[in-house]
Amino acid sequence: MRTALIAIPVLLAATAAAGTTFVRVRADLAQQRTDIASEWDDVGQALQERAGLIADLVDAGQKIAPLQAEVVKQVADARRAVLGGPGPEDKIAGNLRLSNALAKVLVESENLPRMRSNAAFLRLEEEIKNSEDRIAEARLKYNDSLEHYNARIQSFPQNLVARISGFGRNDAYFPTEHF
Length: 179
Known about the structure:
The chain is built from six helices and no strands. About 85% of the residues lie in helices and about 0% in strands. It has one domain (about 25-165): de novo design (two linked rop proteins) (Up-down Bundle), CATH 1.20.1440.20. It has helices at about 1-65, 70-85, 90-110, 115, 120-150, 160-165. The protein is mostly helical.
């Protein structure tokens, strides 16, 4: 009887502590998921800005000297993928295609002295470089948030709370570009 009188309060205290920990950890994981979504929004906005600038660059280039139709089409298709991709993976793949198409535009422009000396074209090229810096910064924050979240759901007690609450690993990393 004496053991039961001691065990019941201890079990109640342990249950209360476990419940409090569960609620705290679950709220923390939910906040981290919200932070990841916010970081992705920043990346998405930077990608959209860059896609718009690249379209403006192509338009400016077309006014100076005709670009290859295939290159213009590749830019337009890749831009649509960046702007209309439903998820991070789609937008990341579209951005890679857009980068490849931009490289082709810039290679073509190297052979056209009128384009290389046009102030509007050069200004847009500089704005694209600046937008790429913003993408790199946003990508770093996003990837760091993902890494932190994924590490947290693998450690105790977060792994138990994550499993019970349906928090899964998120592997939608935005890879860095190697040139």
